[in-house]
Amino acid sequence: MDLNNFETLKDWEKWKKTLRTAVNIGEAAGLSKKTIDNIAYRVGNFLSTAVDPENREERVLQELWKAGNDDDRKTLAKLIVKMIETDK
Questions:
Q1: Of the residues 26, 47, 72, 81, which has the fewest C-beta atoms closer than 10 A?
Q2: How far, rounded to the nearest angstrom, does the alpha carbon of residue 40 sit from its chain's CA centroid?
Q3: Which InterPro entries does UniProt cross-reference here (predicted)?
Q4: In this predicted model, what pLDDT tens digit does every residue of 44-69 receive, in sequence order?
Q5: In this structure, is the dihedral angle defined by the CA atoms of residues 74, 34, 12 and 7, taken in order, positive or negative?
């Protein structure tokens, strides 16, 4: 995901597509599911503190992220990866 291009974050579908592309690249590069989930968790930490949500969906994710503990956040990151993998 191009974190330098915050325009991507303004549109929920574009955000999911960009994230899906990043996951696909990781998988093609041979990253394990565990590694991809860990990266998603780290990106989630960055986004929750450094980026103001641009839409309702991102605001809900940020609120869930902030409400949860570390284990909850790891689970949320895994669910987000699962969501974009199954979203067509």
A1: 72
A2: 5
A3: DUF3243, Uncharacterised_YmfJ, YmfJ/YflH_sf
A4: 999 899 988 888 998 999 999 999 99
A5: positive
